[in-house]
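To close the chapter, one final illustration. This time we ask the reader to focus less on the individual chains and more on the assembly as a whole: which components sit near each other, and how the overall shape emerges from the parts.
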Amino acid sequence: MFETIGIWIAALLTLCIFSFLYKDNPFYKFAEHLFIGVSAGYWACYYYHNVLQPNLFVPLFQEGRPIFIIPLVLGIMMLLHLVPKISWISRWPLAFIVGTYAGYYLITYLQTNALEQVTATLVPLVTFSSVVLFVGVTTGLVYFFFSKEHKGTFGGIAKFGIWFLMIAFGASFGYTVMARISLLIGRMTFLLKDWLHIIQ
Amino acid sequence: MTTIVLLTLLYLQISPPKDVRVFDTPNDAGGSITITWESSPDAEGYRILRMALPDSVYTPVDWVDAATKRYVDKVEDGVKYRYIIRTERGSAYADSEPTDEVWSHGNVFHRGRTNVLIGVAVYTTLLLSFIYFAKRGKKLFVRKIAGLDAVDEAIGRATEMGKPVLYIPGLSTISDVATLASLNILGRIARKAAVHGTRVIVPNRNPIVMPVCQEIVREACLDVGRPDVYREDDIFYITFSQFGYTAAVDGIMLREKPAANFFLGMFWAESLILAETGASTGAIQIAGTDAIHQLPFFITACDYTLIGEELYAASAYLSREPLSLGSLKGQDWTKLIIGGLIVAGVILVSFGSDWFLGLFSS
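The assembled structure is written out below.
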């Protein structure tokens, strides 16, 4: 019984969302607002139980680890954004977060996005694939060099680089579209099989 | 009968592992000891036995198969330990000699990452040098980037039509580099929009990014002397749900009808849904992301797309401030060095010289 009600609600909400393909309408608005409201509430609960509780309240209040006073204070400072007269205090934890992440990721990105990528590119030019890899990487780097106008030979190399990128994007586009089609098939299967029982 | 007994005893006589070594695991944050040994030909497996001093009893820690020659034990820092590796075969076993005392501690410097340190040093030096030159008035050239030249056109169009600008700072967290780049660009766009008195709507998926966006837009309005343009309600949080957020932004695009849409930051599967809806409203669309799987969708559905590095360069390009331009130049020269290393490395590797590869591995 409850399963049938659930299927009907899911099917009708699916149709409400699909109605957006025609134009904006009250059914879409209803589904949109319901989706946003439910998800906002869900994520608020999720964060409380999976982030605040295990990462702050338990270590601080149950295990008595005083170092966790720092995130608690930073969190309270962040909430002061809601008090207009002292909302400036919320800038401090924000600055702390942005600065910390920027510094931390400088190291991580240099290692993963630069050094390891360089290592992966250093292959002997003995196969067609390795030549394509080498030419693609170097011409791509030329395209992303901003200190010189793309003219003459340099411009030609940069153009070659953007061709490489576009061919890669084309392949990626086709691949991802196929993945999206499979999502559509999944939804249509739900409507035709689970809801309407037209297909087995 | 005697022969059978002798053969059985010979069978049960198994040799212990040789050359057992223990040491504090190098290049770690502490809490682990590494044990290595030469395998025994008789082993079906090895049992790791540990004694924490001043105790006098060895207790089993783990069992590993015969192919294993190395074990990393999780221990408490500062406590002294001894180990025995026991060869096991059926019910028979043979113990190695107890090891010397060993204790673990954290390492301040990870020697395997010296190359990263050098990389950071070179990059920082270049960055600071170019910022220094830029501040002293040296003209730094940056090539034309089509997508960014269109920013003024997009804001101008919104102003003429009396419609707002929609700015999506991506769906990722503040820790994402694309988000940080996007926030820099938001400041420039908000400044230009404020000059013309144009509204900037910034729906957010991340609750940390939202107040940063509010601060950025507020400062931009104050900087150009138009605090009256700032509307805090235009920069708001929707939901953390990816497609809940997407549905809401689609609704905003259809109801508010912004004249210009900016999708700059980190995006996932929602990219095409957003860009297609925006295109259907007739808005001029400028996108930029370093998510390579989403770039094709933006390229097909938007008027201009900033590809990867162009997103990072955008802030400097738009502001032309010495600090940003200097950092952009620093990045450019770092890329030049990396390109040079790749060319040199590939030539060396092609001629059979592998030592160059070791420079980049941790």
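The radius of gyration of chain A is 26 Å. The mean pLDDT of chain A is 93. With these observations in hand, you are ready for the problems at the end of the chapter.
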